[in-house]
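This follows on from our talk about sequence and fold. Can you supply me with one protein entry, sequence and fold together? Could you add the entry underneath, on a fresh line?
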Amino acid sequence: FQNPLYGVKSFAIAALEKKRVAAEAALLNCYLAGEVTCLTVGTVAKAFVRALFFTAKVAKKVVDIAREDVKLPETMTKEGFEYNEATYHNVIRQYEWNAEALDIVNLNIREQHIQMRGELQARHQDIT
């Protein structure tokens, strides 16, 4: 299932990127021409494009928030979603801790086995 707002977000960002590149090209042409009026117009255009880019970032944040609200089931509140997410992260941390603890137990058992085997070999050699 693809989010219907994804295409709108991608289109808006691509359009603003084209405008930013055009403004930078115009500013570069101003530097080459050396005209003060062209430089002023280029600077104003660059400021306008930056304002548009900031507006796009705000719009992206709004779309992200709306997408998060859309993906939540009807019966789950924001708090319930955060609780489920925290539970998921706790389970992952518990799994990592268990894996590390079992590795330590395995190492201890192996070291005790090697030590016991060494002591038994020493006893057998003493007997023989």
Summary: The chain is about 90% helix and 0% strand.
